[in-house]
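Morning, I've got a small favour to ask if you have a moment. I owe you a coffee for this, so here goes:
>
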Amino acid sequence: MSTTTASEYTPALQSKLPAVGTTIFTVMSTLASEKGAVNLGQGFPDFNCDPLLVGAVTDAMTRGLNQYPPMTGVPVLREAVAAKLQKLHGRSYDAGREITITAGATQAIITAILAVVHPGDEVIVLEPCYDSYVPNIELAGGVALRVPLIPGTFRPDFDRIASAITSKTRAILINSPHNPSATVWSREDMLRLQDILAPTEVLLISDEVYEHMVFDAAQGRVHESAARFPGLAARAFIVSSFGKTYHVTGWKVGYVAAPAALTAEFRKVHQFNVFTVNTPVQYGLATYMADASPYLELPAFYQRKRDLFRAGLANTRFKLLPSEGSYFQCVDISEVSDLGEADFCKWLTIEIGVAAIPLSAFYGNGFDQRVVRFCFAKKDETLNMALSRLAKL
């Protein structure tokens, strides 16, 4: 038996994500906390959810529904999701074979990518894009092919999308309503994508977490889910988030709807990277979904906050970009400062006391177009406090 004492030694390793550091959301939220700034950077509500939802989850716990649920999600919640998709979009999904409950939308997206992307496969992402997409692709051994949305309008450039598709393209990832730009894809956009993908083997991952936050319905704007278009739905993983819809982002529960053949592959990965999702929360959500009004009323709820926030920003030198959906508002800072986006956001947090996010953080090359993003999913008093500070500009 050895009597020598081994010295401490941590073996070196080669990072799978060498370019990844701390996210801009963490950086700006930390700075906001340190400086006592109003945090309109990170995208989460600062108000409580409906007490009825908490009561439904509490009731499930009290009834002893606290052990492992089925790997695919509790049947009653999958059935509620399928019923909602049928009602809203006219697409019939089999709750048993085509709906999976996930640990939030981020887990759903990486699981879909790991299920279908092989080393060397290309996945098209449209920039600016949510920060998890590209690392997810890289973890799967794939290659992210970045296609920019049209600067200024953030509309899809379908000629560039079509040109980017090759024999190596495995999937394309889209997001509407869009984070960070707050634009919403139209029916014409979805039909054009359907036409482009029709002759290909390319899969679609449709990030629809802000599906119930589409504004200006009086002007005919609606959420055009991929589920509404047969040629897209047949090749799509459709991702959504209960956390975004019901103001409970910390619960981390979402779902994926996909054809049975795609769902079978999705679940092979799902069972080993998360296996199951919080049982009483699933039952509570299923009970709460019996009443559709909370998500049907959500567009008006957030449109009022959008309008309040935009009215206040109109008194500043910011140039307001359209906010068609999500709970974000982007502004052009060109008339306010000569600083780049990242430096401006730091200055704004420290000197003005309001935190925002630079759009350059959503581009792989840090493209700076003098635009920053605010989140208006906040109490009215929070928004008014922020607006009073921003009025200095």
In short: The CA atoms of residues 116 and 286 lie 29 Å apart. The domain at 51-291 is CATH 3.40.640.10 (Aspartate Aminotransferase; domain 2). The first strand starts at residue 38 and ends at 39.
